[in-house]
Amino acid sequence: MDLHTLSVAELAAxxxxxxxxxxxxxxxxxxxxxxxxxxxxxxxxxxxxRALEDARAADEVLGRGEGGSLTGVxxxxxDIFCTDGILTTCGSRMLGSFVxxxxxxxxxxxxxxxxxxxxxANMDEFAMGSSNETSYFGPVRNPxxxxxxxxxxxxxxxxxxxxxxxxxxxxxxxxxxxRQPAALTNLTGIxxxxxxxxxxxxxxxxxxxxxxxxxxxxxxxxALLLAAMSxxxxxxxxxxxxxxxxxxAGLGAPLEGLRxxxxxxxxxxxLDPGIERRVRGALEWLEAAGARLVDVSLPNLPLSVxxxxxxxxxxxxxxxxxxxxxxxxxxxxxxxxxxDLYKRSRGEGFGAEVKRRIMTGTYVxxxxxxxxxxxxxQKVRQLIAxxxxxxxxxxxxxxxxxxxxxxxxxxxKTSDPITMYLNDIYTIxxxxxxxxxxxxxxxxxxxxxxxxxxxxxLIGPHFGEQRLLSLAHRYQQETDWHRRVPPGCE
Length: 490
Known about the structure:
- The protein is an alpha/beta fold.
- The chain has helices at residues 8-16, 22-40, 48-63, 105-112, 155-162, 179-185, 219-229, 273-288, 304-319, 338-349, 352-364, 370-392, 417-421, 428-433, 465-478, and strands spanning 43-46, 74-78, 116-121, 168-172, 188-191, 212-216, 259-263, 292-296, 397-401, 437-447, 450-459.
- The chain has an eleven-stranded mixed sheet, with helices on both faces.
């Protein structure tokens, strides 16, 4: 039995039936991480001792006939979530030696559900990037083609799950950082409604956009994991007190009569023709299965990239001001005075992309430019949200591609930040509007003899995660795209 290719649901069933133990699972995955992990650079920290400890505890619970749907399941956390007693770096030299003194809510909730922590995944520095090439610890490689990017900023989480080094992983999505890597690595990734998952202990990039979520193989797995991490948290002022449904129990909803909005702005000149064919094929299948396709328009969506790259850097410049070399984080050697301490600590601690965004954010918030840039961007943000609201008065779900291209080669876009930013053109709108959105596998395109995954994006109204998961699950019941694994990872 290839334990590493089983889904979370299948692993949970096997553990409960005692066909294998959690300790056996943990040792199996740790062996794969040791053997395959270094070539992908998916991990910053491997927590082998913690994994074995968690696994033994899970086996005790399972041995008593107790435990839930995640007890004993091996997972990975993106290294943006604080983990008590474990290195938490955010992929940055600035936090290269920071050991968190507490657990983020997401970490605590998955731990309480009985998961086994295998390690902390590599990521773009402070979640700023679309390719996982900005990490201080080096780029992550895509298991489908190690010469290509896995997407960012949750690229380490995506590569670990895609290569069967973990059953599932947490991620964060500020402008597409769960969905885009999911699309590029053949995974199912979901970003819930803003406020659905607590941001406590999730190191902030852009506070009005950041949201935790899940990278997994299937919608069924994502439903189990999302339910465990969701819910109100009084320690997070942006957390919303709305009951969390049993997502897994609601996966059986039929497609008949479901109105799927096909936004014309998603099918623009920048969309790769091969990607479009695969997405159109998925839409045809959904229509044949009973859904109704409806043309809709989101006229302000093309403004989402410039809007995002004013709002997000403005918030990042504020959030990252705390990393000053005084209280925690990197401190330069032998500072001459306080000004030198600040300048050299920040100059040495932050990478080029983080510095670029801090400078941009400081500029747009400065006197004389606030109204011209930041205030205007917030007004456009409201127009984008209004476009989605109008569309959802006509349809139940908006569908389209997740990414305009398949995974591109490492280094192909690092010298051109604007081209890199455009990779998130289809995903940013959901973050600006605070909407739930997910990506699921819908086929492959071929480039240079390699099969490269394609993602179908689903966007729903606020707290519409159940409908997205049900739609994705129905599609995955009849297709096997999501079950395919990269060559050499079988």
